[in-house]
Give the backbone structure.
Amino acid sequence: MEELLERYTRYLTAEKNLSPYTLRNYRSDILDFARYMAASEDVEPVAVDRQSFRRYLASLRDRGIASASVTRRVSTVRNFFRFLAMEDVLEANPLAAVRAPKRERRLPAILTKEHLTALIEAADETTPHGLRNRALLELMYAAGVRLSEVVGLDLSRVDLDERVLLVRGKGNKERMVLIGEAAESALRRYLRQGRPQLAGPPDEALFLNRDGKRLSGRSVQQIVRRYAMRAGLAQRVFPHLLRHSYATHLLDGGAELRVVQELLGHASASTTQIYTHVTEERQREVMLEAQRKLTEVILSRKRRRR
C-alpha cells in the first residue's frame, strides 16, 4: 500500500502541481481509509468494493466527521483508485460509480467592519513584530488572499506605488490583486522600520519571522488568533475569515460577481456565488431587525394611548 501511495504522490506532484499541504491531506485521507479496511473489513484496501466503502462512509459519519470532509474523502479515495486502474494495478476502478453524500450548504462566517478594525488595530506598531503583524492583517483583508498566498509573497511581487501584488494561488496560477491606502501605508512602515530589524541572511520573503526566515502559515494562524483575543472578539477568528469578509464586503459595496471572482482567484463563478447568499442573508437580518424595532415602536405608542 505504501509503495502505491508513493507512486500516486509522485504522479500528483508531476501532473497536477499540487501544493505540499494538499498532498499531505490526500495522503492522510487515503491512509485513514486503508486503516479502516485493515481493521474493520480485514482485507487489503485494493480489495474494496462498493458495499465495504459504504460501510467506511458510515463509520466516518459515526465518528462525527463533517459532511464536507466526507465528500472530500470520497473524491480522494475514488481518484486514487482511478489512478490504480489507469496504471493497470487494478482491472477497473471499483468505486467509479460511488457518489459522495450531498453536501449541506453552509454560509461562511464573516467579521463586521467594526470587528475587523478592532482586530487590525490590536497590533502594536511600536515593535518590528508589531509592524509586521499590522501589515500582515491589513494585507490579508485588503487583498483577500489565502494563507498560502500571503506567506508565499516575495518582495519582488509587491508594487506599492501601483498598490498591486502578484500572488501565486491554487494550481500554481498567478493573479494580480489590488490593495488600498491603509494596507499600502502599513506595508511601507513595516518595510522601512520593521523588516530590516527582522532580516537575517538574504531572504526574498515579504514577511519574516524572528529568525529572519519566511513566516510560516502556522505562525500567521497564531497571530490572527492572538489579536482576535486581544481585540475581545467572541467568535473564532482564523486567516480565511478575513478572505470571507473581504469578498462579502466587496459584494455589499456593489462589486460585480465576476470581478470578485477574479480578485479571489476562483476558477468557477459558482464558488464565488456563495458570498452573494451571505450578502442576501445579511440583508434579510437587517430587514428583520428593522421590522422588529418598528413593531416595538408601534406597540409602545399604542400602550401610551391607553
Summary: The mean pLDDT is 84.
